[in-house]
Design brief:
Number of helices of chain A: 11
Number of helices of chain B: 10
Structural class of chain B: alpha/beta
Strand content of chain B: 25-35%
Largest sheet of chain A: none
Order of helices and strands of chain B: EEEHEEHHHEHEHEEHEHEEHEH
Helix content of chain A: over 70%
Oligomer: heterodimer
Largest interface: A-B, 26 and 29 residues
Shape of chain B: elongated
Radius of gyration of chain A: 18 Å
Shape of chain A: globular
Order of helices and strands of chain A: HHHHHHHHHHH
């Protein structure tokens, strides 16, 4: 447990060092600022619709995948490219512990940044329009999708130094195009994990988010199970790679 | 008699190991073992030393053959890392950490007592810089930080890949003494280095690798003697070297004789026969010998021969 906590702490330090957190922080400021402009001076119903149309879309479809891509790919990938991965693998730790710690640290970092942006957006909505219901579900939904995204990008970052490029293609081609046009693929969409969880907790959300949800049913437990499932599979796959693939 | 490639009471066994990267063969059907004491691993750049050490440490999977550390496969049994530490050639350190934080980090991950951290830092003489970020360290200081991290817990097996790179002469002596003390205490210490004179000074046993294959094993002098197909050079100093040279050149054990002032450079393929012949000829003809020493028993020349022979 001490080793797990130590790796998580060190990874958080690595992820939040340099200019990376500043750039990601600026990106995260976008949703609450946009929320402020779209919900001020309108009725409660209009504010809620605009909040779902603009702010939630911005959070789940743009900010979350980008932040998760940058931090998730860096969590294990940077160790490999900086040749510090040997510091971790030459320890009497299960490989699952190493990958799990990296995943946990990246998830905490992404949830802190994007969840913070989501909380700020919810607070702006609450203050401007008096609607507070989406605040906590939104943060939980972000946390669920963040887990799915980080798990996938963690493995991608380990496998290739071009993870960010490939990840961007995945986000914009798969998540933002194919999963919208082919209804059956929506179930494989990572941002929809959080959206379905969120929609299950906010009364009017399924109506506002019907185009995003498509054929998916809202459900918090299902979303949580799916996010955890993706994380477990990624951890097992990462551990297998640490055991079987060469560490140059 | 046991092959010199295999150590008594082996802690690491390398059995018919090959490793190739695409078309490039880095290590080819190599078998050897390492046991308590200090073993030097030698070879020119690209010979396969680092590849072998990384397979020993479980960082690379052999394409063929097996590696066992304390009877286990390090790839699938992480618990062997309680007893195995590697000082890699590359800068495997975190620039944002101080040396003390780095050594402590490694100790915690290995489950070793953090109370040993300060002693390890002092052992490599890094105490004054221990609380500065590693990012500002010289190459030699980084090396010492890595060595300090490896020393915590006093591992049974210490694998060092070019550990003296970038260190100054005083630090080299200190590190060599540490390695020798560990080896003397029964630890398995493997040192790979291209600084041949230093390996010669510290390692009792040497494995020479050329083109991914084991070219020779044993102590330096034994390796040199085993290479009977290459003439052995001996420097003989004597009063009247020309006359002595003229007598020696008729002996069956002598291949060539060169005279350089009062020194004779004699080549032989049978050094033991030469060792008997020289005193006998000197005594028979009244030559006073003032010196008889091998010219090329240094690792550098052994190594040069090994490379040339292949």
């Amino acid at each position: 447990m001490t080793a797990l906590r130590t790796v998580i702490t060190a990874t958080l330090h690595q992820l939040f060092s340099g200019r990376r957190p500043i750039l990601l922080g600026l990106l995260a400021v976008l949703p609450p600022v946009v929320t402020f402009f779209v919900v001020r001076g309108v009725s409660e119903g209009v504010a809620l619709r605009r909040f779902h149309d603009v702010s939630i879309t911005l959070l789940f479809i743009l900010v979350l995948p980008l932040v998760a891509l940058v931090l998730g790919a860096a969590a294990l990938g940077d160790e490999r490219r900086d040749t510090t991965l040997t510091v971790l693998v030459l320890r009497p730790m299960r490989r699952e512990t190493i990958v799990g710690a990296k995943l946990a640290a990246a998830w905490i970092a992404v949830t802190a940044i994007v969840g913070g942006a989501a909380a700020a957006s919810g607070i702006v909505l609450g203050v401007a329009a008096g609607v507070w219901e989406p605040l906590v579900p939104l943060v939980l939904g972000i946390a669920l999708s963040a887990l799915g995204y980080v798990a996938v990008f963690l493995i991608l970052g380990y496998l290739t130094p071009r993870a960010v490029l490939i990840g961007l293609i995945y986000v914009f081609i798969w998540e933002n195009a194919i999963s919208f046009t082919v209804d059956g693929f929506a179930v494989l969409s990572l941002f929809r994990i959080g959206i379905t969880g969120y929609a299950a907790m906010v009364d009017l959300a399924p109506r506002f988010l019907s185009d995003v949800l498509g054929s998916l049913d809202p459900g918090m437990y299902g979303a949580a199970a799916k996010a955890i499932g993706v994380a477990v599979v990624a951890t097992m796959a990462g551990a297998w790679m640490l055991r079987r693939r060469d560490i140059a | 008699m046991t092959s010199p490639a295999f150590a008594d009471a082996a802690t690491i066994s390398v059995n018919g190991v090959s490793k190739w990267f695409g078309q490039k063969v880095a290590v080819s059907d190599l078998s050897c073992s390492f046991g308590p004491g200090l073993t030097g691993l030698l070879g020119p750049n690209g010979a396969g030393k680092t590849t072998l050490l990384r397979m020993v440490c479980g960082l690379l999977t052999p394409s063929d053959g097996t590696v066992e550390v304390l009877g286990e496969d390090p790839r699938t049994t992480p618990s062997v890392y309680r007893d195995l530490a590697l000082v890699p050639e590359e800068d495997a350190v975190y620039g944002y950490q101080t040396a003390r934080e780095f050594v402590r980090y490694c100790a915690v991950l290995s489950g070793h007592p953090v109370s040993e951290v300060d002693d390890a830092i002092d052992a490599v003489d890094l105490g004054d810089a221990a609380d500065r970020p590693i990012a500002g360290f010289s190459k030699g200081m980084r090396q010492r930080a890595k060595v300090a991290a490896a020393l915590v817990g006093s591992p049974r097996i210490l694998v060092l890949d070019e550990p003296l790179n970038g260190t100054d002469p005083v630090q080299r002596l200190r590190l060599i003494r540490i390695f020798q003390e560990l080896a003397g205490a029964g630890h398995t210490v493997i040192v790979s280095s291209h600084v041949l004179a230093e390996v010669e000074r510290m390692a009792g046993r040497v494995l020479a690798i050329v083109d991914g294959k084991l070219a020779a094993a044993g102590d330096v002098a034994a390796i040199r003697r085993a290479m009977t197909d290459i003439p052995y050079r001996v420097r003989i100093t004597s009063a009247g070297p020309r006359d002595l040279g003229a007598r020696l050149v008729t002996d069956d054990s002598v291949s060539t004789v060169e005279v350089d002032g009062d020194t004779l450079h004699v080549e032989t393929t049978d050094v033991e026969a030469l060792g008997r012949a020289v005193p006998r000829i000197a005594a028979d003809h009244g030559f006073r010998l003032t010196g008889f020493e091998p010219e090329d028993e240094s690792l550098e020349s052994v190594f040069r021969y090994l490379v040339r022979r292949r």
